[in-house]
Structures
1.
Amino acid sequence: MAQRIVIENCAIATVDADDTEYASGYMVVADNRIESLGAGKAPEGLEDVVRRIDATGHLVTPGLVNTHHHFYQWLTRGLATDHNLFNWLVALYPTWARIDEQMTYTAAQGSLATLARGGVTTALDHHYVFPKGSGDLSGAIIRAARETGIRFTLARGSMDRSEKDGGLPPDFAVETLEGALAATEATVDEHHDDSFDAMTQVAVAPCSPFSVSTELMQQGAELARRKGVRLHTHGSETVEEEQFCKELFGMGPTDYFESTGWLGEDVWMAHCVHMNDSDIAAFARTKTGVAHCPSSNARLAAGIARVPDMLAAGVPVGLGVDGTASNESGELHTELRNALLINRLGAHREAALNARQALRLGTYGGAQVLGRAREIGSLEPGKLADLVLWRLDTLAHASIADPVTALVFGAAAPVTASFVGGRQIAENGRLLHVDEDAIARSTREEARRLARIAAQG
Ligand SMILES: [Zn+2]
Protein backbone atom coordinates (compact mmCIF):
# COMPACT_ATOMS: atom_id res chain seq x y z
CA MET A 1 0.00 0.00 0.00
CA ALA A 2 1.34 3.42 -0.99
CA GLN A 3 2.35 5.82 1.78
CA ARG A 4 1.37 9.37 0.89
CA ILE A 5 2.84 12.76 1.79
CA VAL A 6 0.67 15.80 1.03
CA ILE A 7 2.28 19.24 0.56
CA GLU A 8 -0.14 22.19 0.39
CA ASN A 9 -0.50 26.00 0.26
CA CYS A 10 2.77 26.60 -1.63
CA ALA A 11 3.86 28.12 -4.91
CA ILE A 12 5.07 25.40 -7.29
CA ALA A 13 7.45 25.76 -10.26
CA THR A 14 7.23 22.41 -12.04
CA VAL A 15 9.90 23.12 -14.72
CA ASP A 16 7.89 20.85 -17.06
CA ALA A 17 7.99 21.40 -20.85
CA ASP A 18 5.46 24.26 -20.58
CA ASP A 19 7.04 25.81 -17.45
CA THR A 20 3.75 25.25 -15.60
CA GLU A 21 3.55 27.11 -12.29
CA TYR A 22 0.96 27.33 -9.52
CA ALA A 23 0.76 30.43 -7.32
CA SER A 24 -0.89 28.31 -4.62
CA GLY A 25 -0.96 24.60 -5.13
CA TYR A 26 -0.51 21.11 -3.76
CA MET A 27 1.51 18.01 -4.42
CA VAL A 28 0.89 14.40 -3.44
CA VAL A 29 3.87 12.06 -3.12
CA ALA A 30 3.14 8.33 -3.05
CA ASP A 31 6.14 6.26 -1.93
CA ASN A 32 9.07 7.43 -4.09
CA ARG A 33 7.05 9.04 -6.91
CA ILE A 34 5.01 12.20 -7.50
CA GLU A 35 1.38 11.07 -7.73
CA SER A 36 -0.39 14.34 -8.49
CA LEU A 37 -0.02 18.10 -8.26
CA GLY A 38 -2.03 21.16 -9.23
CA ALA A 39 -3.65 24.42 -8.17
CA GLY A 40 -5.55 24.81 -4.91
CA LYS A 41 -5.95 22.17 -2.20
CA ALA A 42 -5.09 18.49 -2.47
CA PRO A 43 -7.99 16.17 -3.37
CA GLU A 44 -10.02 15.04 -0.38
CA GLY A 45 -10.33 11.45 0.73
CA LEU A 46 -6.73 10.38 0.01
CA GLU A 47 -5.86 7.18 1.85
CA ASP A 48 -2.69 6.31 3.74
CA VAL A 49 -1.56 9.92 4.24
CA VAL A 50 1.35 9.64 6.69
CA ARG A 51 2.26 13.32 6.64
CA ARG A 52 0.61 16.60 5.69
CA ILE A 53 2.89 19.64 5.23
CA ASP A 54 1.47 23.17 5.32
CA ALA A 55 4.00 24.88 3.05
CA THR A 56 2.61 28.40 3.30
CA GLY A 57 5.29 30.94 2.31
CA HIS A 58 7.27 28.40 0.27
CA LEU A 59 8.18 27.71 -3.32
CA VAL A 60 8.45 24.04 -4.28
CA THR A 61 10.82 23.19 -7.14
CA PRO A 62 12.46 20.03 -8.46
CA GLY A 63 15.58 19.17 -6.47
CA LEU A 64 18.74 20.73 -7.87
CA VAL A 65 21.03 18.55 -9.99
CA ASN A 66 24.77 19.10 -9.87
CA THR A 67 26.57 17.99 -13.04
CA HIS A 68 30.24 18.71 -12.28
CA HIS A 69 32.31 18.56 -9.09
CA HIS A 70 35.51 17.14 -7.59
CA PHE A 71 34.75 16.18 -4.00
CA TYR A 72 38.37 15.54 -2.95
CA GLN A 73 39.13 19.26 -3.40
CA TRP A 74 37.12 19.99 -0.23
CA LEU A 75 40.43 19.51 1.63
CA THR A 76 42.31 22.10 -0.49
CA ARG A 77 39.93 25.05 -0.49
CA GLY A 78 41.31 28.57 -0.32
CA LEU A 79 44.71 27.79 -1.84
CA ALA A 80 46.29 29.28 -4.98
CA THR A 81 43.52 31.86 -4.90
CA ASP A 82 45.02 34.23 -7.48
CA HIS A 83 45.99 31.76 -10.23
CA ASN A 84 44.68 30.90 -13.67
CA LEU A 85 43.77 27.26 -14.42
CA PHE A 86 47.15 25.88 -15.53
CA ASN A 87 49.14 27.60 -12.75
CA TRP A 88 46.48 26.56 -10.22
CA LEU A 89 46.72 22.92 -11.38
CA VAL A 90 50.52 22.93 -11.21
CA ALA A 91 50.35 24.47 -7.70
CA LEU A 92 47.84 21.93 -6.36
CA TYR A 93 48.63 18.61 -8.10
CA PRO A 94 51.52 17.73 -5.72
CA THR A 95 49.10 18.03 -2.76
CA TRP A 96 46.21 16.26 -4.50
CA ALA A 97 48.53 13.37 -5.36
CA ARG A 98 48.81 12.55 -1.61
CA ILE A 99 45.13 11.82 -0.93
CA ASP A 100 44.21 8.50 0.64
CA GLU A 101 40.93 6.67 1.27
CA GLN A 102 40.13 8.37 4.59
CA MET A 103 40.78 11.84 3.16
CA THR A 104 38.70 11.09 0.07
CA TYR A 105 35.80 9.80 2.16
CA THR A 106 35.89 12.83 4.48
CA ALA A 107 36.14 15.30 1.58
CA ALA A 108 33.17 13.58 -0.07
CA GLN A 109 31.18 13.91 3.16
CA GLY A 110 31.90 17.64 3.33
CA SER A 111 31.05 18.21 -0.33
CA LEU A 112 27.85 16.14 -0.20
CA ALA A 113 26.62 17.70 3.04
CA THR A 114 27.05 21.18 1.60
CA LEU A 115 25.22 20.27 -1.60
CA ALA A 116 22.39 18.46 0.19
CA ARG A 117 21.66 21.16 2.78
CA GLY A 118 21.37 23.66 -0.09
CA GLY A 119 18.70 21.83 -2.08
CA VAL A 120 20.73 19.46 -4.26
CA THR A 121 19.03 16.06 -4.59
CA THR A 122 21.27 14.59 -7.32
CA ALA A 123 25.03 14.99 -6.92
CA LEU A 124 27.97 14.05 -9.09
CA ASP A 125 31.64 13.56 -8.33
CA HIS A 126 34.20 13.55 -11.14
CA HIS A 127 37.06 11.83 -9.37
CA TYR A 128 40.27 11.32 -11.35
CA VAL A 129 43.15 11.23 -8.80
CA PHE A 130 43.97 7.63 -7.90
CA PRO A 131 47.49 7.57 -6.38
CA LYS A 132 49.10 4.11 -6.18
CA GLY A 133 48.12 2.21 -3.04
CA SER A 134 45.52 4.78 -1.96
CA GLY A 135 42.76 2.22 -1.32
CA ASP A 136 39.18 1.96 -2.61
CA LEU A 137 38.52 5.63 -3.32
CA SER A 138 35.43 5.04 -5.51
CA GLY A 139 33.87 2.83 -2.84
CA ALA A 140 34.55 5.47 -0.17
CA ILE A 141 32.89 8.24 -2.22
CA ILE A 142 29.81 6.10 -2.96
CA ARG A 143 29.52 5.17 0.73
CA ALA A 144 29.48 8.86 1.69
CA ALA A 145 26.73 9.55 -0.88
CA ARG A 146 24.58 6.68 0.41
CA GLU A 147 24.91 7.95 3.98
CA THR A 148 23.78 11.45 2.98
CA GLY A 149 20.73 10.00 1.20
CA ILE A 150 21.39 11.88 -2.05
CA ARG A 151 21.03 10.47 -5.58
CA PHE A 152 24.50 10.12 -7.03
CA THR A 153 26.63 9.66 -10.14
CA LEU A 154 30.32 8.80 -9.81
CA ALA A 155 32.19 9.94 -12.90
CA ARG A 156 35.15 7.54 -12.61
CA GLY A 157 38.00 9.68 -13.87
CA SER A 158 41.55 8.86 -14.86
CA MET A 159 44.84 10.42 -15.96
CA ASP A 160 47.72 8.77 -17.85
CA ARG A 161 49.57 11.80 -19.27
CA SER A 162 51.99 13.05 -16.63
CA GLU A 163 54.84 15.54 -16.72
CA LYS A 164 57.17 13.13 -18.52
CA ASP A 165 54.65 12.90 -21.43
CA GLY A 166 54.01 16.65 -21.65
CA GLY A 167 51.04 16.66 -19.24
CA LEU A 168 50.57 18.64 -16.04
CA PRO A 169 50.15 16.03 -13.22
CA PRO A 170 53.24 14.64 -11.47
CA ASP A 171 54.27 11.13 -12.60
CA PHE A 172 53.22 9.42 -9.35
CA ALA A 173 49.66 10.81 -9.56
CA VAL A 174 48.65 9.03 -12.78
CA GLU A 175 47.55 5.51 -13.72
CA THR A 176 48.62 3.42 -16.71
CA LEU A 177 46.30 3.20 -19.71
CA GLU A 178 45.48 -0.45 -18.99
CA GLY A 179 45.17 0.13 -15.25
CA ALA A 180 42.78 3.04 -15.66
CA LEU A 181 40.53 1.17 -18.10
CA ALA A 182 40.40 -1.99 -15.99
CA ALA A 183 39.63 -0.09 -12.79
CA THR A 184 36.93 1.97 -14.51
CA GLU A 185 35.27 -1.16 -15.90
CA ALA A 186 35.37 -2.79 -12.47
CA THR A 187 33.73 0.30 -10.92
CA VAL A 188 30.91 0.20 -13.49
CA ASP A 189 30.40 -3.53 -12.87
CA GLU A 190 30.32 -3.11 -9.11
CA HIS A 191 28.29 0.08 -8.67
CA HIS A 192 26.30 1.16 -11.77
CA ASP A 193 22.53 0.74 -11.49
CA ASP A 194 20.48 1.53 -14.59
CA SER A 195 17.03 1.16 -13.02
CA PHE A 196 14.48 4.02 -13.08
CA ASP A 197 14.96 4.93 -9.42
CA ALA A 198 18.72 4.22 -9.28
CA MET A 199 20.53 5.91 -6.39
CA THR A 200 24.02 5.19 -7.80
CA GLN A 201 25.27 5.44 -11.36
CA VAL A 202 28.76 5.43 -12.85
CA ALA A 203 30.12 7.34 -15.87
CA VAL A 204 33.46 6.92 -17.68
CA ALA A 205 35.38 10.17 -17.23
CA PRO A 206 39.04 10.64 -18.28
CA CYS A 207 40.11 13.97 -16.79
CA SER A 208 40.92 16.28 -19.72
CA PRO A 209 42.80 16.34 -23.05
CA PHE A 210 45.91 17.70 -21.34
CA SER A 211 46.16 14.96 -18.69
CA VAL A 212 44.97 11.95 -20.72
CA SER A 213 46.44 10.10 -23.74
CA THR A 214 44.51 9.89 -27.01
CA GLU A 215 44.35 6.09 -26.49
CA LEU A 216 42.65 6.54 -23.10
CA MET A 217 40.11 8.96 -24.62
CA GLN A 218 39.32 6.53 -27.46
CA GLN A 219 39.28 3.34 -25.41
CA GLY A 220 37.37 5.06 -22.59
CA ALA A 221 34.63 5.99 -25.08
CA GLU A 222 34.54 2.41 -26.38
CA LEU A 223 34.32 1.06 -22.82
CA ALA A 224 31.43 3.41 -21.92
CA ARG A 225 29.46 2.41 -25.02
CA ARG A 226 30.09 -1.28 -24.49
CA LYS A 227 28.78 -0.92 -20.92
CA GLY A 228 25.91 1.45 -21.78
CA VAL A 229 27.06 4.20 -19.37
CA ARG A 230 27.65 7.91 -19.95
CA LEU A 231 30.89 9.77 -20.76
CA HIS A 232 32.14 12.89 -19.00
CA THR A 233 35.26 15.06 -19.20
CA HIS A 234 36.49 18.67 -19.13
CA GLY A 235 36.43 20.57 -22.43
CA SER A 236 37.34 23.98 -23.87
CA GLU A 237 37.88 25.50 -20.43
CA THR A 238 40.65 27.99 -21.21
CA VAL A 239 42.56 29.71 -24.02
CA GLU A 240 45.66 27.77 -22.96
CA GLU A 241 43.83 24.47 -23.44
CA GLU A 242 42.90 25.45 -26.97
CA GLN A 243 46.55 26.27 -27.75
CA PHE A 244 47.67 23.00 -26.13
CA CYS A 245 45.27 21.00 -28.35
CA LYS A 246 46.35 22.83 -31.50
CA GLU A 247 50.05 22.25 -30.79
CA LEU A 248 49.69 18.63 -29.75
CA PHE A 249 46.87 17.35 -31.96
CA GLY A 250 46.78 19.93 -34.78
CA MET A 251 43.15 20.82 -34.04
CA GLY A 252 40.97 22.58 -31.48
CA PRO A 253 39.32 20.76 -28.54
CA THR A 254 35.91 20.13 -30.15
CA ASP A 255 37.47 18.60 -33.30
CA TYR A 256 39.74 16.54 -31.06
CA PHE A 257 36.75 15.28 -29.07
CA GLU A 258 34.95 14.37 -32.30
CA SER A 259 38.03 12.51 -33.60
CA THR A 260 38.24 10.43 -30.41
CA GLY A 261 34.53 9.50 -30.23
CA TRP A 262 33.67 12.13 -27.62
CA LEU A 263 30.70 13.89 -29.15
CA GLY A 264 27.28 12.27 -28.72
CA GLU A 265 24.05 12.30 -26.76
CA ASP A 266 25.68 10.07 -24.11
CA VAL A 267 28.46 12.66 -23.46
CA TRP A 268 28.53 15.77 -21.34
CA MET A 269 31.45 18.10 -20.85
CA ALA A 270 32.36 20.57 -18.14
CA HIS A 271 32.90 24.27 -18.95
CA CYS A 272 32.89 24.66 -22.79
CA VAL A 273 33.93 28.28 -22.38
CA HIS A 274 35.95 28.73 -25.56
CA MET A 275 33.57 27.52 -28.25
CA ASN A 276 33.12 29.10 -31.70
CA ASP A 277 29.91 28.86 -33.76
CA SER A 278 30.91 25.61 -35.43
CA ASP A 279 31.82 24.03 -32.05
CA ILE A 280 28.36 24.92 -30.72
CA ALA A 281 26.76 23.57 -33.92
CA ALA A 282 28.67 20.28 -33.47
CA PHE A 283 27.42 19.96 -29.88
CA ALA A 284 23.86 20.74 -31.01
CA ARG A 285 23.99 18.27 -33.92
CA THR A 286 25.28 15.47 -31.69
CA LYS A 287 23.24 16.47 -28.57
CA THR A 288 26.44 16.59 -26.51
CA GLY A 289 25.69 18.13 -23.10
CA VAL A 290 27.42 20.92 -21.18
CA ALA A 291 28.01 21.39 -17.44
CA HIS A 292 28.13 25.17 -17.01
CA CYS A 293 30.24 26.22 -13.98
CA PRO A 294 30.03 30.03 -13.81
CA SER A 295 31.65 30.60 -10.39
CA SER A 296 34.63 28.38 -11.11
CA ASN A 297 35.12 29.97 -14.54
CA ALA A 298 35.14 33.38 -12.87
CA ARG A 299 37.44 32.23 -10.00
CA LEU A 300 40.04 30.96 -12.50
CA ALA A 301 39.47 33.84 -14.96
CA ALA A 302 38.65 31.27 -17.66
CA GLY A 303 35.95 33.34 -19.38
CA ILE A 304 32.18 33.29 -19.94
CA ALA A 305 30.59 30.25 -21.61
CA ARG A 306 28.12 31.11 -24.40
CA VAL A 307 25.11 29.58 -22.64
CA PRO A 308 22.41 31.65 -24.44
CA ASP A 309 23.85 30.56 -27.82
CA MET A 310 24.05 26.92 -26.69
CA LEU A 311 20.42 26.96 -25.53
CA ALA A 312 19.28 28.64 -28.76
CA ALA A 313 21.07 25.92 -30.75
CA GLY A 314 19.45 23.15 -28.69
CA VAL A 315 22.49 22.03 -26.66
CA PRO A 316 21.51 20.41 -23.31
CA VAL A 317 23.01 22.53 -20.51
CA GLY A 318 23.14 21.84 -16.76
CA LEU A 319 24.94 23.59 -13.89
CA GLY A 320 28.01 22.55 -11.94
CA VAL A 321 29.69 23.70 -8.76
CA ASP A 322 33.05 22.38 -10.05
CA GLY A 323 35.63 21.34 -7.45
CA THR A 324 35.75 23.46 -4.32
CA ALA A 325 39.41 24.34 -4.83
CA SER A 326 38.04 26.68 -7.51
CA ASN A 327 34.62 27.43 -5.95
CA GLU A 328 35.09 27.53 -2.21
CA SER A 329 31.34 27.83 -1.45
CA GLY A 330 30.52 24.38 -2.84
CA GLU A 331 26.84 25.36 -3.11
CA LEU A 332 24.74 24.90 -6.21
CA HIS A 333 21.78 27.15 -5.41
CA THR A 334 24.05 30.18 -5.64
CA GLU A 335 25.03 29.03 -9.14
CA LEU A 336 21.50 29.76 -10.39
CA ARG A 337 22.13 33.41 -9.59
CA ASN A 338 25.71 33.40 -10.83
CA ALA A 339 24.74 31.74 -14.14
CA LEU A 340 22.19 34.46 -14.72
CA LEU A 341 24.42 37.37 -13.70
CA ILE A 342 27.64 36.23 -15.37
CA ASN A 343 25.92 35.47 -18.67
CA ARG A 344 24.52 39.01 -18.68
CA LEU A 345 28.13 40.24 -18.78
CA GLY A 346 28.52 38.43 -22.13
CA ALA A 347 27.36 39.33 -25.63
CA HIS A 348 23.60 38.99 -25.00
CA ARG A 349 23.59 41.40 -22.05
CA GLU A 350 20.23 41.66 -20.24
CA ALA A 351 18.59 39.22 -22.70
CA ALA A 352 21.11 36.44 -21.91
CA LEU A 353 19.11 34.42 -19.35
CA ASN A 354 16.02 35.01 -17.22
CA ALA A 355 15.18 33.58 -13.80
CA ARG A 356 13.15 30.69 -15.17
CA GLN A 357 15.88 29.68 -17.59
CA ALA A 358 18.38 29.72 -14.73
CA LEU A 359 16.12 27.47 -12.62
CA ARG A 360 15.74 25.13 -15.62
CA LEU A 361 19.54 24.87 -16.00
CA GLY A 362 19.85 23.79 -12.36
CA THR A 363 17.05 21.19 -12.52
CA TYR A 364 15.79 19.78 -15.82
CA GLY A 365 18.95 20.77 -17.71
CA GLY A 366 21.04 18.87 -15.18
CA ALA A 367 18.80 15.82 -15.45
CA GLN A 368 19.19 15.92 -19.24
CA VAL A 369 22.99 15.97 -19.21
CA LEU A 370 23.08 13.13 -16.66
CA GLY A 371 20.73 11.13 -18.92
CA ARG A 372 17.97 11.07 -16.28
CA ALA A 373 15.34 13.47 -17.66
CA ARG A 374 12.71 10.69 -17.69
CA GLU A 375 13.07 10.22 -13.93
CA ILE A 376 14.00 13.58 -12.38
CA GLY A 377 14.47 17.29 -13.12
CA SER A 378 10.80 18.37 -13.23
CA LEU A 379 7.73 17.91 -11.04
CA GLU A 380 5.32 15.70 -12.99
CA PRO A 381 3.13 12.73 -12.05
CA GLY A 382 5.09 9.48 -12.33
CA LYS A 383 8.51 11.06 -11.86
CA LEU A 384 10.64 10.47 -8.78
CA ALA A 385 9.78 12.68 -5.79
CA ASP A 386 13.04 14.67 -5.71
CA LEU A 387 11.96 18.12 -4.55
CA VAL A 388 12.79 21.11 -2.37
CA LEU A 389 10.70 23.47 -0.23
CA TRP A 390 12.38 26.89 -0.34
CA ARG A 391 11.29 29.31 2.38
CA LEU A 392 10.55 32.72 0.86
CA ASP A 393 8.59 34.51 3.61
CA THR A 394 11.52 35.66 5.75
CA LEU A 395 13.37 38.99 5.72
CA ALA A 396 15.55 37.88 2.79
CA HIS A 397 12.70 37.39 0.29
CA ALA A 398 9.31 38.40 1.72
CA SER A 399 9.05 41.68 -0.20
CA ILE A 400 9.70 40.05 -3.61
CA ALA A 401 6.34 39.17 -5.18
CA ASP A 402 7.39 36.55 -7.74
CA PRO A 403 8.76 33.39 -6.07
CA VAL A 404 11.04 32.26 -8.93
CA THR A 405 12.53 35.76 -9.12
CA ALA A 406 13.04 35.66 -5.34
CA LEU A 407 14.79 32.27 -5.55
CA VAL A 408 17.14 33.17 -8.42
CA PHE A 409 17.80 36.90 -8.01
CA GLY A 410 17.60 36.95 -4.20
CA ALA A 411 19.90 35.71 -1.47
CA ALA A 412 20.40 31.94 -1.13
CA ALA A 413 16.96 30.83 0.12
CA PRO A 414 16.64 28.69 3.27
CA VAL A 415 15.73 25.04 2.59
CA THR A 416 12.88 23.97 4.86
CA ALA A 417 12.74 20.44 3.49
CA SER A 418 14.39 18.42 0.78
CA PHE A 419 13.25 15.00 -0.46
CA VAL A 420 14.99 12.35 -2.57
CA GLY A 421 12.64 9.70 -3.91
CA GLY A 422 10.08 10.73 -1.28
CA ARG A 423 12.59 10.33 1.57
CA GLN A 424 13.41 13.52 3.44
CA ILE A 425 17.14 14.26 3.67
CA ALA A 426 17.19 17.84 5.03
CA GLU A 427 15.01 19.90 7.35
CA ASN A 428 15.42 23.60 8.13
CA GLY A 429 18.86 23.64 6.54
CA ARG A 430 20.14 20.67 8.59
CA LEU A 431 20.82 17.18 7.33
CA LEU A 432 18.78 14.32 8.77
CA HIS A 433 21.00 11.28 8.17
CA VAL A 434 24.53 12.53 8.85
CA ASP A 435 26.08 14.68 11.58
CA GLU A 436 27.09 17.97 10.01
CA ASP A 437 29.18 19.17 12.96
CA ALA A 438 31.13 15.91 13.13
CA ILE A 439 31.78 16.17 9.38
CA ALA A 440 33.03 19.76 9.80
CA ARG A 441 35.50 18.59 12.48
CA SER A 442 36.81 15.67 10.47
CA THR A 443 37.21 17.76 7.29
CA ARG A 444 39.42 20.16 9.24
CA GLU A 445 41.51 17.31 10.65
CA GLU A 446 41.91 15.61 7.26
CA ALA A 447 42.74 18.89 5.50
CA ARG A 448 45.52 19.47 8.06
CA ARG A 449 46.77 15.89 7.68
CA LEU A 450 46.90 16.27 3.88
CA ALA A 451 48.76 19.60 4.15
CA ARG A 452 51.26 17.99 6.55
CA ILE A 453 51.93 14.99 4.30
CA ALA A 454 52.20 17.19 1.18
CA ALA A 455 54.71 19.48 2.95
CA GLN A 456 56.98 16.45 3.53
CA GLY A 457 57.13 16.03 -0.29
ZN1 LIG B 1 36.32 20.39 -13.06
2.
Amino acid sequence: PVGLSPPPHPHQTRSPIDQAHSVDKDRSGVISDTELQQALSNGTWTPFNPVTVRSIISMFDRENKGGVNFNEFAGVWKYITDWQNIFRTYDRDNSGFIDKNELKQALTGFGYRLSDQFYNTLIEKFDRQRKGQVAFDDFIQCCIVLQRLTDVFRRYDTDQDGWIQVSYEQYLSMVFNVV
Ligand SMILES: [Ca+2]
Ligand SMILES: [Ca+2]
Ligand SMILES: [Ca+2]
Protein backbone atom coordinates (compact mmCIF):
# COMPACT_ATOMS: atom_id res chain seq x y z
CA PRO A 1 0.00 0.00 0.00
CA VAL A 2 1.31 3.42 -0.90
CA GLY A 3 -0.05 6.93 -0.46
CA LEU A 4 -2.44 8.11 2.17
CA SER A 5 -3.23 5.98 5.17
CA PRO A 6 -5.72 5.54 6.56
CA PRO A 7 -7.58 5.05 4.31
CA PRO A 8 -4.98 3.92 1.79
CA HIS A 9 -7.36 2.98 -0.99
CA PRO A 10 -8.62 5.54 -3.50
CA HIS A 11 -11.80 3.52 -4.08
CA GLN A 12 -12.94 4.49 -0.61
CA THR A 13 -15.38 7.32 -1.03
CA ARG A 14 -14.39 9.77 1.71
CA SER A 15 -14.38 13.29 0.35
CA PRO A 16 -11.20 15.36 0.51
CA ILE A 17 -12.88 17.59 3.11
CA ASP A 18 -13.62 14.61 5.39
CA GLN A 19 -10.08 13.50 4.82
CA ALA A 20 -8.76 16.97 5.65
CA HIS A 21 -10.66 16.95 8.96
CA SER A 22 -9.10 13.67 9.99
CA VAL A 23 -5.60 14.77 8.94
CA ASP A 24 -5.88 18.12 10.78
CA LYS A 25 -5.13 16.60 14.17
CA ASP A 26 -4.87 19.87 16.13
CA ARG A 27 -8.05 21.23 14.46
CA SER A 28 -6.31 24.43 13.41
CA GLY A 29 -7.94 24.45 9.98
CA VAL A 30 -4.50 24.23 8.41
CA ILE A 31 -2.71 21.02 7.57
CA SER A 32 0.95 21.27 8.47
CA ASP A 33 3.95 19.33 7.17
CA THR A 34 3.88 17.13 10.27
CA GLU A 35 0.17 16.40 9.95
CA LEU A 36 0.49 15.52 6.28
CA GLN A 37 3.54 13.40 6.92
CA GLN A 38 1.69 11.44 9.60
CA ALA A 39 -1.19 10.81 7.20
CA LEU A 40 1.07 9.55 4.44
CA SER A 41 2.58 6.17 4.00
CA ASN A 42 5.19 5.19 1.47
CA GLY A 43 4.34 1.53 1.80
CA THR A 44 7.34 0.80 3.97
CA TRP A 45 8.03 1.18 7.66
CA THR A 46 10.10 4.28 7.16
CA PRO A 47 8.54 7.73 7.72
CA PHE A 48 7.40 9.53 4.58
CA ASN A 49 10.22 11.69 3.21
CA PRO A 50 9.87 15.09 4.98
CA VAL A 51 11.45 16.84 1.99
CA THR A 52 8.73 15.45 -0.29
CA VAL A 53 6.07 16.57 2.21
CA ARG A 54 7.52 20.10 2.21
CA SER A 55 7.69 20.16 -1.60
CA ILE A 56 4.02 19.15 -1.89
CA ILE A 57 2.78 21.56 0.82
CA SER A 58 4.66 24.50 -0.69
CA MET A 59 3.16 23.74 -4.11
CA PHE A 60 -0.38 24.21 -2.76
CA ASP A 61 0.16 26.69 0.11
CA ARG A 62 -0.83 29.91 -1.65
CA GLU A 63 -0.39 32.38 1.22
CA ASN A 64 2.86 30.96 2.58
CA LYS A 65 1.23 30.01 5.87
CA GLY A 66 3.33 26.90 6.38
CA GLY A 67 0.50 24.53 5.61
CA VAL A 68 -2.60 24.07 3.48
CA ASN A 69 -6.21 24.97 4.23
CA PHE A 70 -8.97 22.46 3.52
CA ASN A 71 -9.60 23.77 0.00
CA GLU A 72 -5.93 23.55 -0.87
CA PHE A 73 -5.83 20.11 0.69
CA ALA A 74 -8.22 18.91 -2.01
CA GLY A 75 -5.45 19.73 -4.49
CA VAL A 76 -2.86 17.98 -2.35
CA TRP A 77 -5.11 14.94 -2.11
CA LYS A 78 -5.59 14.76 -5.87
CA TYR A 79 -1.90 15.34 -6.49
CA ILE A 80 -0.90 12.44 -4.25
CA THR A 81 -3.61 10.15 -5.62
CA ASP A 82 -2.41 10.89 -9.16
CA TRP A 83 1.16 10.03 -8.15
CA GLN A 84 -0.11 6.90 -6.49
CA ASN A 85 -1.68 5.78 -9.76
CA ILE A 86 1.47 6.63 -11.71
CA PHE A 87 3.58 4.74 -9.19
CA ARG A 88 1.36 1.66 -9.44
CA THR A 89 1.41 1.81 -13.22
CA TYR A 90 5.20 1.79 -13.39
CA ASP A 91 5.82 -0.57 -10.47
CA ARG A 92 5.38 -3.44 -12.92
CA ASP A 93 6.31 -6.22 -10.50
CA ASN A 94 4.22 -4.75 -7.64
CA SER A 95 7.25 -4.73 -5.38
CA GLY A 96 6.30 -1.39 -3.79
CA PHE A 97 9.54 0.04 -5.16
CA ILE A 98 10.58 1.50 -8.46
CA ASP A 99 13.75 -0.13 -9.71
CA LYS A 100 16.07 1.26 -12.35
CA ASN A 101 14.21 -0.23 -15.31
CA GLU A 102 10.83 0.87 -13.97
CA LEU A 103 12.21 4.37 -13.41
CA LYS A 104 13.52 4.38 -16.95
CA GLN A 105 10.10 3.46 -18.31
CA ALA A 106 8.37 6.06 -16.13
CA LEU A 107 10.66 8.96 -17.00
CA THR A 108 10.78 8.00 -20.67
CA GLY A 109 6.98 7.97 -20.53
CA PHE A 110 7.12 11.53 -19.14
CA GLY A 111 9.27 12.58 -22.10
CA TYR A 112 12.75 12.58 -20.52
CA ARG A 113 15.66 11.30 -22.59
CA LEU A 114 18.37 10.25 -20.18
CA SER A 115 21.35 7.93 -20.45
CA ASP A 116 21.60 4.60 -18.68
CA GLN A 117 24.45 6.03 -16.61
CA PHE A 118 22.28 8.90 -15.45
CA TYR A 119 19.64 6.50 -14.14
CA ASN A 120 22.30 5.10 -11.81
CA THR A 121 22.92 8.66 -10.61
CA LEU A 122 19.19 9.21 -10.03
CA ILE A 123 18.80 5.98 -8.08
CA GLU A 124 21.85 6.82 -5.99
CA LYS A 125 20.54 10.30 -5.27
CA PHE A 126 16.93 9.41 -4.43
CA ASP A 127 17.22 5.94 -2.95
CA ARG A 128 16.79 7.08 0.65
CA GLN A 129 16.52 3.55 1.99
CA ARG A 130 19.65 2.29 0.23
CA LYS A 131 17.86 -0.56 -1.50
CA GLY A 132 19.04 0.19 -5.01
CA GLN A 133 15.49 1.29 -5.89
CA VAL A 134 13.12 4.07 -4.87
CA ALA A 135 10.03 4.07 -2.65
CA PHE A 136 6.86 6.06 -3.37
CA ASP A 137 7.88 9.25 -1.55
CA ASP A 138 11.35 9.28 -3.08
CA PHE A 139 9.92 8.63 -6.53
CA ILE A 140 7.71 11.74 -6.21
CA GLN A 141 10.70 13.74 -4.98
CA CYS A 142 12.86 12.54 -7.86
CA CYS A 143 10.20 13.60 -10.38
CA ILE A 144 9.64 17.00 -8.71
CA VAL A 145 13.35 17.84 -8.63
CA LEU A 146 13.93 16.64 -12.17
CA GLN A 147 10.98 18.70 -13.38
CA ARG A 148 12.18 21.84 -11.58
CA LEU A 149 15.73 21.53 -12.85
CA THR A 150 14.49 20.87 -16.37
CA ASP A 151 12.18 23.89 -16.29
CA VAL A 152 15.05 26.16 -15.22
CA PHE A 153 17.35 24.70 -17.88
CA ARG A 154 14.75 25.18 -20.59
CA ARG A 155 14.36 28.83 -19.69
CA TYR A 156 18.02 29.34 -20.63
CA ASP A 157 18.08 26.89 -23.54
CA THR A 158 16.08 29.20 -25.78
CA ASP A 159 17.09 27.42 -29.00
CA GLN A 160 16.24 24.05 -27.39
CA ASP A 161 19.38 22.27 -28.51
CA GLY A 162 20.08 20.81 -25.07
CA TRP A 163 23.05 23.10 -24.44
CA ILE A 164 23.30 26.31 -22.46
CA GLN A 165 26.07 28.75 -21.75
CA VAL A 166 25.62 30.64 -18.49
CA SER A 167 27.64 33.10 -16.47
CA TYR A 168 28.50 32.50 -12.85
CA GLU A 169 25.63 34.65 -11.60
CA GLN A 170 23.16 33.13 -14.02
CA TYR A 171 24.24 29.76 -12.72
CA LEU A 172 23.67 30.88 -9.13
CA SER A 173 20.22 32.20 -10.04
CA MET A 174 19.42 28.86 -11.68
CA VAL A 175 20.39 26.95 -8.57
CA PHE A 176 18.51 29.38 -6.29
CA ASN A 177 15.39 28.65 -8.35
CA VAL A 178 15.61 25.04 -7.30
CA VAL A 179 17.06 24.88 -3.79
CA1 LIG B 1 -3.41 21.54 11.87
CA1 LIG C 1 9.03 -2.59 -8.69
CA1 LIG D 1 20.94 26.10 -26.35
